[in-house]
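Lecture notes, structural biology module. Today: joint structure prediction for complexes of four components.
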Amino acid sequence: MDEEQERHVVTLKDVAAASGVSISTVSRVLDDRTPPSRSSTAEKVRRVADELGYRRNMFASGLRRGATGTIGVLVPRLTDHVMALMFEAIERTARARGSFAVVATCGDDPAEERRATETLLDRNVDGLVLATARLDDTLPASLRERGVPHVLVLRTDGVSPSALGDDEAGGYFAARHLVDLGHREIAVVTGPWFTSSARDRLAGARRAFAEGGVELPDARVISTGYGIESGHLAGRSLLEDAASRPTAIFAANDNLAIGVVAAASAAGLTVGRDVSVVGYNDIPLAGMLPVPLTSVRTAFDQIAASALDLLGGPGPITRALPTLIPRASTAALAR
Amino acid sequence: MDEEQERHVVTLKDVAAASGVSISTVSRVLDDRTPPSRSSTAEKVRRVADELGYRRNMFASGLRRGATGTIGVLVPRLTDHVMALMFEAIERTARARGSFAVVATCGDDPAEERRATETLLDRNVDGLVLATARLDDTLPASLRERGVPHVLVLRTDGVSPSALGDDEAGGYFAARHLVDLGHREIAVVTGPWFTSSARDRLAGARRAFAEGGVELPDARVISTGYGIESGHLAGRSLLEDAASRPTAIFAANDNLAIGVVAAASAAGLTVGRDVSVVGYNDIPLAGMLPVPLTSVRTAFDQIAASALDLLGGPGPITRALPTLIPRASTAALAR
DNA sequence: CTGTTAGCGCCTTCAT
DNA sequence: ATGAAGGCGCTAACAG
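The predicted structure, tokenised, for the full assembly:
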């Protein structure tokens, strides 16, 4: 019956009138940044605000405060499972800390990346989380100059505060696993050379190979995209010639691994028997494939937590240790 | 050298001062909602604004205008590929129309759904796009009462404006495909019974079966979640008994299909030879599996466009026609 | 078309 | 601890 009243947006003024105090008192009582007062006035104001269904107008509040409780996240695409996992982890963490995470996607295009960054900045975000860093990228540098709080995740430019997985260690675990299984003819399919993750995972693999006395000729290293398609192509070129075929492949990303597996199937090879494959990130799908995929699990939640920590104060580069998850796609080398 | 100047945020006042006109003139010239004036003053103001690097303060603007150019999107989770595809389509469409899409995730929990809705509303979004509708859900009804502009996508409650795929038709296409291939022992694994998509896809399948004179006993219908895991379980229970085993399975979602395929592999069956499997949505992964998956392609972009149209004026329920994409996972019944 | 005037809802000195 | 007053940056009436 009192529909009109329902539709009216409740402001501080309404709460003040209803509780018989001034607007500023209400504002202070309802300020969530300071420890809540236990005075009777405060109690009453809170109760009235609740009854009336008061909700702070973020625009007015943000305009006045400067800060907005919003952090902007930039990812290449959300349809990349790794990025979706990363964003969800950031969103969860932000929410737990009382912030809201908004995301923008920009593909792999640096120009689009800048545009998206400005869009996010236009929305007065308190800080920026970038999962898009290229080693040759100038965006982080320009953010540093402009004094924009930001942190890089998953990939770094080597300078800005970054929350990463320990890709070198992960690469080492994956390669070491294959070496331990007796493989000596091993290929590595890694991601785009402009990402620190691709380089570091390869570097870690090289270390394991050196330890195990395994050669890694250049022809056995393919740097490509991070999509399934790329893995498919790489797998085909590695597996087509039966004579030079490796017995194991480390794909520096689960998508790449899935592509490699598809190529192996197409070549009539059974993964886990004829050829071993290790992926990276351990996306949920990895364990649910027809042949469950051995992978290196990235600690997304830990990375998200570090990232938000680094947004607060200036900090260095952190690296969360990953874990090898062995499954059926890797097996001991048939002698 | 003029770092200080760089750090200062440029406001309308600055632009006004620099161009020798009043603030309101600048405001009007820079108003992107009206056709841009070609007068010399306007030209000059635009140039100055550009040089100074003016960017509208969305908070101040939003506070004054009421509208914010932001639409809120609610999905269960972004790690569900279907939802990631849907959101990306909405984001693209929104951007093309000059809006910005923000997303919140809420799992499958109605309470969380309400919380997330309020969070989005608190951010003064101009409208809400919900991909979370349950048939028994009261949220759309409450949004209708409160007069909040909203549209449902992919799933409907049957009342609020909705932009859907034509799930009945899609279910028909999938089942008809199997019938045409000669299968008569067919099972259907569909999604949660509280989603319109699960019910409609099953209804479409039933129509195809009826047309083809194929029986669908209750034991051959499994309603479950929309995750890979659910598909795996359903597949196992359908395929474990060789005597009663169906020769084909329609999974009303690619995740379910992937789970079914994994179960088939585990049971020593080769998909496409021993058992045919059809999925739904045609996520990019579907075509890249070891055995490429036959699927029904959902027109996400078309759905996104309809959704934003419906947000404008009140409208009915639209259904975008899907397309069957036949691949190697389905084959003619070996006689 | 231009400028002047009043706020949008909130926060924050500054007094009390 | 409270209230009064001013203003964040922008836009919408209102006059000229």
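Point to remember: The domain at 68-165 of chain B is CATH 3.40.50.2300 (Rossmann fold).
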